[in-house]
Amino acid sequence: MKKTILILGIIFLLIGVNIESSSDSGLKENSFNLYISESLEFQEKSSSRGKIAYAYNTYPSGISEGLVKFDLDDPENISLLAPTVSGDFLSGGTWANGYGWLAVEYGSGVLWEIDPYTGDMYSIGGGGQSLGDLAWDDYTWKLYALGNSNDFFEINPETGISDLIGNNLTGNIVSFAFNSQGVCYGIDILTDSLHIINISKGDVTFIANLSISLDYYSSYISFDKNNDILYLLTDSLYICNTENGECNFIGSFGSLQLSAFAIPYNCSGPTADFTWEPLVGEPYIPVNFNASDSYDPDGYIILYEWDWDDDGIYDENHTDPNATHIWEESDEFPVTLRVTDNDGLIGMKTKYVLVYKEPLTPPSITGPTSGKVGVTYEYEFVQVNPDGDDISYFIDWGDNTTTGWTDYYTSGEWITRNHTWYEKGDYEIIAKVKDCYGGESPWSMLKVTMPRDKSIQNILFLQYLERFPLLSLLLQRLLLL
Q: Which of 239, 262, 444, 464 has the most CB atoms in a 10 Å sphere around its CB?
């Protein structure tokens, strides 16, 4: 009996242990899953943790008007960066790769660059129309602005000059932003909705209604491009789901009215750079370019594109970093290199190439400056080309005859040409040279006189004396003396 009780006790003990073990296992598994879930949620929400965002406060309540900064995961902890020096409040803002924080004045449309550390503002220029928001596209390396009449502009980040690229955009878009892949999103203030925008066509595609109501005077979106998270700023800060419009609350700004919203990011795209030889080019002489100094920190470059005439159109593209170009005149020419990496990201660099040729000097002319009609005279010509190029001569004898362009001669080589004048008078020999690339020198000149023949003059004088015999006899005796 005791043995039976002992066996049953062991069985119950084992069952209890298994049950407890199963319970503990389930608890541990559920705890692990919960830990993973919480970790993923934490990672999603804190992917921008510690990242400082920037804005402009137009309504001084609790904090002075001016440039402000705050942590994306703690927007309520907002602080003044610096007062603004612009003439009007800053409406649109963006973070532009290579340029930093850019913002525009609402009324004038003047573009400003802002130092995110000091708040110092530097006027870039532009203006002429009211602008509401800015957005930078890393995929095309372009800066865009949204006007107040649903007009889209492309802004030159170097000058602030704007070009209208589309108008009458459908809807009432008040803010727009590009993700890291160049997809443009916009929010509609009247319908509280999220859209995708095709800027080149002006098309607006509805995605979803937002789960919050927008503030008519202060509603802006911006991407954390390191994580492709869309942030929506109104009187509070939200993370916006780009698929369903759901907005997750992060923190409130209270009664502050913010604009010029910008989120810094680190772009791991390629860096473009190039050199060229010769350092100073010449017209019609090839200039060799080498872009091997370009690099990609996390991949490799797959395409090199060259814009030779600063028109925004890339004239050549290569898979290797070398290119050659020829200019036909002297000037300082902007050359832009655009490189694309294996992730489709781009980098750009513009440099100025000096193309210059020392002007050709007029040739030297040596030879007689007076002579007799009907006699052939010899003249020599020479010119030293500073570049050592072969040269051709054009000689005008001043009597409606020329040599035309001669054959080409070595620079510094003397050439000889003969000429005969058949009428008395004063003549100007003029000559110029051209090199083998078509460049011409100014004219040089040598004056030549062809007076009466002295023998003819003597015959006429003697004929005159025959009319006066006594005078003729007197002159003969004087000459004999």
A: 262
